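Data availability (excerpt). The following record was deposited with the supplementary files.
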Amino acid sequence: MKKKKEKRVREVYEPKKGLTGQGDDYHIYTMNGKEKVTAFLLGMAGTFVVVYLFFKSMLLGLAAGIAVGILIQKYYALHLCEKRKNTLLMQFRDMLEALTSSYSSGKNTNGAFSDAYGDMIQIYGENADIVQELKIILMGINSNINIETMLADFADRSELNDIKSFADVFEVSVKQGGNIKDIISATRDIINDKIEIEMEIGTLLSGNKNELNIMMIMPLIIIVSMEGLGSEMTVTGNSPLNILIKIVALGMFAAAYVLGKKITTIKV
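Predicted structure:
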């Protein structure tokens, strides 16, 4: 029973590799040194400013900043992972456009994917994710692996519903002899419509997101302004009661920001 459990854990958490052993697992993001430093500096600088304004202690601000700079690495990696997936989806849409053009010119499936590979290199460069995935697919073709199997593997690693849907429909069309050109064209149109809807929603919510960010900065600006004017309304000193009040205030700001981010984040 224990061995089965350990096996299940490895299947969930170990990175998935493509059938050629070269495909990336897109739900795991490994930051490079530059990205780690960027995340650390952003977390440290922001935390230091907030803690110093509230508690007037450089030592406490520095300690809190270092702690947050280390803890924020995970969340920054998740942000970069999501950004990579969104970029991959846009590249996948362009790949479908290239496939549609190749099929329209009379190419067979192998030739269409080969042409799409060349087109994606011209658009995105050799290091782009979609280029690497097409390279893996072409390697699979040369190794007598079915394209539908390679697409299913790509969809499994990307964890993107649009790619998974395309892989499933492509497999069915190959087995049942459907019109692959029409299927790819229809999939491209669906993805285009989805992306346009997401962009429209993003435009509608951009104002609210900006307001949320401004509201989070305003308390800090108010504190600086009131202290500059010598206002007696500010909570000064680091008595136990004052520290408790400041901690509660910071907790409320953090909770409001998290809640605001959830409200202004809509996935289609």
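Summary of structural features: The chain is about 80% helix and 0% strand.
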